[in-house]
Amino acid sequence: MNNLIIADKLKIIGLIALIFLLPNLIQAQEFSLNNQESTLAVYGTSSLHDWHVTAENKSGKLICTNLETGELQSCSFKVLAESLKSGKGSMDKNTYKALKTDKYKSISYELVEVKEIINQGAGKFLIKSLGNLTITDTKKLTPIDFDLFIEDGKITLKGEKAIKMTDYNIDPPKALFGTITTGNDLTIKFTSIYK
């Protein structure tokens, strides 16, 4: 008799736990990065002129545990290094040499922790995060703030991040026997659309 009572109580506790967990389980969704609609560009300077390269080949996954509160479980992003294009062949070659693309084929970001979510209303959130940014042979835990928009079955991440080449073991490229030098500071600007 006591065993039946204990079994019934365990079933009730299990049912209550399931009722509380079910909304989160239902709302957790995986999204894949849409390469055609997403953009990523890197902006820099040189002793001759400012420059930028645009990523043509991007991929990634995002899992949102709650669409109403903007809670992320995971987020990844990858750029094929030799898909970074400036429109100038010689500059692209210098970029690939600096990035050591013969050894390191991609640049990647992996979310580690969401520090804060600020709800700005109408499906828009400011996310303050920490993630591993890997460029060449260097992986660094990097703080990145970005806007997150949820609408029509897609999630858009939009932001920018300033970094230094030397922080990622990259020697700023030089051209024309060292007469043109590239600045150490870069700004990465992205609009990532996950569907």
Anisotropy-based shape: elongated
What oligomeric state do the depicted chains represent?
A: single chain
- Which regions are unreliable across 5 or more consecutive residues at pLDDT < 50? 21-26
Count of individual helical segments: 2
Strand content: over 45%
The CATH topology comes to: Lipocalin
Give average pLDDT, whole number: 87
The number of E-state strands comes to 14
Biggest sheet, in brief? 12 strands, antiparallel
Order of helices and strands: HEEEEEEEHEEEEEEE
Q: Which CATH first-tier class would you pick?
A: Mainly Beta
What number of domains? 1
Task: Write up what this structure looks like.
This protein is of the alpha+beta class. The chain has a single domain (28-194), classed as Beta Barrel (Lipocalin), CATH 2.40.128. Helices cover 18% and strands 52% of the residues. It contains 2 helices and 14 strands; from the N terminus they run αβββββββαβββββββ. It has helices at residues 2-27, 89-98, and strands at residues 29-32, 39-44, 51-55, 58-59, 61-66, 71-80, 84-85, 106-121, 124-135, 138-151, 154-164, 174-175, 180-181, 185-194. Strands 1, 2, 3, 4, 5, 6, 7, 8, 9, 10, 11 and 14 form a 12-stranded antiparallel beta sheet that branches. A hairpin with a 4-residue loop joins strand 5 (61-66) and strand 6 (71-80).
Pick out its properties:
YceI-like domain-containing protein, elongated, Lipocalin, 195 residues, alpha+beta, 12-stranded antiparallel sheet, TTHA0802/YceI-like_sf, 2 helices, single chain
